[in-house]
Amino acid sequence: MPVDINRGTTGVALPLSVATEIWGNMVEESAVMRAARRINLPGNGVSIPVITGDAAADWVDETDAKPVARPTLANKTMTPYTLAVIVPFSNQFRRDLPALYNELVRRLPNALGSKFDSTVFGVGAAPGSNFDQLSGAPSLTVDSTATFADLAAVVNAIAAAGGDLSAWIASPALHGLLLTAVDSNGRQFFIPDPANSRTVGSVFGAPVYKTRATMPSGAGATDDIIGFAGDFATSAVYGTVEGVQISISDQATLIDGEDTINLWQQNMFAVRAEVEIGFRVRDVNHFVKINDGSADGS
Known about the structure:
Helix content is about 25%, strand content about 35%. It contains 6 helices and 16 strands.
């Protein structure tokens, strides 16, 4: 039976703030988390009320009866699913705690944040039926021939579905298009962020969040996805139970694919990070998958 050694154990102690630091960096690594609204999620899940239709007003003549209207409502259950990663280290890290700490902060948030984002994007199966994915969103092309018009079409599609564009999530490919888009006079359409000339800060007033998380790949005549846009502020929500939890062991046996690592025998220890997290959207049509316009990524 693997033995979990807590953060106060001699020899493998970590700063008490490490879990908080990893959670903060995970949010920074995740484009979806930066774009969507966060709620606190109970361990047994929560029912989220969803407005599916608004009450409608109408004009009436003097002394006429006023119209009666009712909004329509529905509920979605958000269930927490466990996302986890184990990173093994050699015992040499114990001699230099700052090196261990920095390595943890560098590795774990990227692993957790990228997996969460790619699952939301529709890469692979959802962890359960109460976890939404954006794979069902309509798809529009954005390419180098008419980038400005393509992006405007994305905004219009979201608005026509009843959404309000609040954020863009851009892969390196989409971000490259934004940086190089110019008008007929060769002037740059989208101004880079003043703090970083290599980053486009916003498009049509909505922030651009860069991501290196894996996006869905096309097959046959289907175009590869290079980004997402949508009403993340009001139509998407994610929740976590306790943030990132950290556990350490130097006596466990790890199964890594076809390899087995005996931590005690090989003078190693491992750090496990996990988070219970869920994701839901109000209406998938309030989002657009942005494809590159070329089959099979060509």
